[in-house]
Structures are given as C-alpha cells and as structure tokens.
Amino acid sequence: MIVAFSVTPLGVGEDVGEYVADAVRVVRESGLPNRTDAMFTSVEGEWEECMDVVRRAVAAVEARAPRVSLVLKADIRPGVTDGLTSKVASVERHLG
Questions:
Q1: I need a labelling partner for 2 at 20 to 30 A (CA). Which of 15, 36, 46, 81 fits?
Q2: Which regions span the lipid bilayer (predicted)?
Q3: How many Cβ atoms from other residues are within 10 Å of residue 48's Cβ?
C-alpha cells in the first residue's frame, strides 16, 4: 500500500514549513519507505503501519497548531512492494 498525504497547519500564518517538517520527521523516523515532494509525502507499507504513521504525523502538527487539515490518497494493492520506485520507473520507461 502507498499512502500519499499532506498535513497542513491552519491558523499559524503563511510560513508552515517548520510545522510540516515535524510531520515529515515522523515519517522518516518510521523506517518505512517514503518520499516527500512539494505537495505530498508518500509512505509505503501495510495498512496499519501507514495509518499509524499518518496519525502520528498529524499529531505532531496538531501539538503546535490550533487546527490541522489532512488530505490523503491511498493505493491499496496487495502483494506489491517497492511501489514508490517501480511505479515511477514504469512511467520513465515509457517516456524513454
């Protein structure tokens, strides 16, 4: 399973990078395969693992912000591993 999510603190002003870094730190410390880009952080693992990481990432931001917005998208595909890399590699092969 791959979960792409975005955690945004609300009510803290326009510069939210410091708060988002708290969430990304939780993801990176989880030990699960992950990737962060300008819009989302993706994490790969089993359902319980991924949802726990998302919950803890939200909690990290919630600890410092009065309100939190969460956007989440999941690719639930049993038996697939290394999807973070293989899905991108497939597109790159077709572009090449």
A1: 15
A2: none
A3: 9
Contact between residue 9 and residue 68 where contact means Cβ atoms under 8 Å apart: yes
**Distance (Å) of CA 17 to CA 6, 23, 35, 48, 84:** 12, 10, 16, 27, 24
Please answer whether residues 16 and 9 qualify as being in contact, where contact means their C-beta atoms are separated by less than 8 angstroms. Answer: yes
Residues in the chain where the model's pLDDT stays below 70? none
Report the alpha-carbon distance of residue 93 to residue 70 in Å, rounded. 33
Alpha-carbon distance of 60 to 23, in angstroms, equals 6
Listed in sequence order, the residues at least 6 apart from 32 whose beta carbon sits closer than 8 Å to its beta carbon are: 43, 44, 45, 49, 50, 53
Model-level pTM greater than 0.85? yes
20/73 Cα distance (integer angstroms) = 18
